[in-house]
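Table S2 (continued). Query chain:
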Amino acid sequence: MKNILILLIILTSQIFSQNNESSFYSFKQQAISEISQIKDLDQPVVDDNVKQKKSTGLAIVYSLLLPGMGELYADAYDSGVYFTIADGVLWGTYVGMNVYANWQKDRYISYSQTNAGVTPENKDEDYYATIGEYLDIDQYNDQQAFEYNFDEMYDTETHFWKWNTSEERKEYRNMWVSSEQTFNDVRFVVGALLLNRVISAINAVRLVSKYNNNLSQEVGWNVSLGVQSYPDNTSSYNINFITSF
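Corresponding output:
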């Protein structure tokens, strides 16, 4: 901006100096001296319309980190905002489902301790799945012995359980199924999170390509200002207009 103001001053002084050269000579020389002290004098002083092309690689990275950011980078967030909203909803669903599944898990473990005499030490997921299908440990062991699966039998001292009624077993089974089904459904939410990122990245690449194509069709212009000194201690200034396609 300073260059432009000085340029206008010089042009004005040049016009008026033709009518009154003695009055404006010193003013003109002072302006030229000011221009000579400006660093990078030959750099453009007006470059408002010249834009840089955007990188599709960056658009992909942004979209993978947070869906919608690739579109924002491509100056087209009006479509990217939906990917951001979807990501927020999916993350909320993911957290909520995990909280619910773990809550149900705590419920059925506590229920088995209260109503079936289960001790929580050294019990794995298979054990908690099994006790929901058999009324007691003896029924389970008899079934394994009948099928010659002796290695699958439980120790009655460490893995004892006995439901008082079938209704209690069914109630436990319902809580276990609810927890396990929710944990399984979480995987679909994770898949949706990944898919949302992939689609956002593809859309961002398309928008960046569109942005760059439009940019190549625009005409940009800039102005550069320079001063040239001569051996006789005189100076002249020049103005360069540059257009880009």
